[in-house]
Amino acid sequence: MKKTLIATTVAALMAAPAMAADITMKFGHVGAPGSLFEASVNNFAECVGSASEGKIEVQTFGSSQLGKDKELLQKLKLGQVDFALPSSVMSSVDDVFGIFEMPYIIQDRDHMRRVQGAMMDKFQSAAQENGYYIVGLAENGFRHITNNVRPINTPEDLKGVKLRTPNGAWRVKMFQEYGANPTPMAFSDVFTALQTGVIDGQENPYAQIASAKFQEVQKYLSITGHVYTPAYILASDKTFSSHPEDVQTLLRDCASKTQDFTYEKAAQLEEELLGVIKDAGVEVNEADKAAFIEASKPIYEGFAAEVDGAQEMIDEVMGLAQSG
């Protein structure tokens, strides 16, 4: 099937062996070398190249080379980039994606699979209404807090801590509720801000913490697991729909395979990278998750009050946690 999948698109061009690729696509992301983002994007690019027998080349650009998250979202619409891998920033695109900003709402990857299966139409509609198309899902992961002030055991320990967050309104509200002083900031600016003391800490999955070398400029890691953030293999709806149907199918198929790869890789990295962070001399503690869950109630209440249909989404996601 793979060999004939895009035959109608490239049959005439296959007689021209001098061309390295007949279609070239650019994939920009903010992940550093060694990050889960880099591994996921590279896996997608390799799948597309293989499945198209080299007729489609996905060129990858990490470390914000083609722009930070918000810039990449704009470049997608302008047709300057074909794919991006946004995560938390999607909650600023549409309130529907704010569901993944609710603390502790996603239990594990199997739960995320069920949410995806039941609710993907809702997320896709929200993306398309804003000019985007979700080719597939990957992962950013379960997020934990690092800082230079003190170990974080309960939300009270965050009082006054200057904490970097991604550009998402609900993440800011969450940490305000916990008592921190949250500051939205592009991922590429975080290391220097930590190093110079502009901020005290940040929150990210181990794969982002270790690949960005935050362990070199942070004293404490508190295992909170406060939010699970998916990542979105995102395209412009206009650009994606302009491709022939067989090319669209190939891209969606590779995105699905990349999700499988990403989940396996992420689970592996969670074990390996906690050790890397500890070995760098960072003091690690297990936070009191029950205290964080209790302190999170106002965030759910605010989301339900401010966003149409939010309570129904919350109930559906929580129901799917219990159905597995």
UniProtKB/TrEMBL annotation:
This is Sialic acid-binding periplasmic protein SiaP. Keywords: Periplasm, Signal, Transport. Transmembrane segments: none annotated. GO terms for biological process: transmembrane transport. Belongs to the bacterial solute-binding protein 7 family. Its main location: periplasm. InterPro entries: DctP_fam, TRAP_DctP, TRAP_DctP_sf. The lineage of its organism: Bacteria, Pseudomonadati, Pseudomonadota, Alphaproteobacteria, Rhodobacterales. PANTHER family: C4-DICARBOXYLATE-BINDING PROTEIN DCTB (PTHR33376:SF7), PTHR33376. The keyword Transport applies. It is found in: Periplasm. Residues 1-20 form the signal peptide. CDD domains: PBP2_TRAP_Siap_TeaA_like. Pfam families: DctP (PF03480). One of its GO terms (cellular component) is outer membrane-bounded periplasmic space.
